[in-house]
Amino acid sequence: MVSDGQHNWDKLRLMMSSGGGNITAAFAAYNEIRSMPIELETLNTGATDSPALMIFMAGKKRYACARSAFQLRQSSWSFPSKDDVALSVIADTAKWLQEYQRIMAETIAEGTDGRLTSDKVVEMIQAGTTLNPQQAKDIGLIHDIIEPTIPPEARWWQV
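Below the sequence we write its predicted structure tokens.
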């Protein structure tokens, strides 16, 4: 249960739409959200793309709106364009990205209750796979297709 001193919550629904973002920040958000002492539901209200999919997978129950999509794609790394980049830095970055991809694939596969293997998720990432809600449901990324609702008595924030 989470409390702000006036209210107690034991359930949180995170409605999200994100074109991706920073993969290391997504890992941190996933781990921190999973440590929260509440039941978390996630709802894709638009597009939830790699690496935002990591955060989405933190939901114990996961949903998507009928008009939403998921994209699994390879992570990328930006180097400062004005500086020279040593080969060793490029090689290290390639190793990091491969490790990040492995962790992301394992996390996604674990959330599908055995419907996907991490190897299959890696294939989907490397192919740049886009899924509609029914496809996401069929492979276990989501539990159901629903439309967003906010009960009148609910507290909500938009960030």
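Helices lie at 23-34, 52-56, 87-111, 118-127, 133-138.
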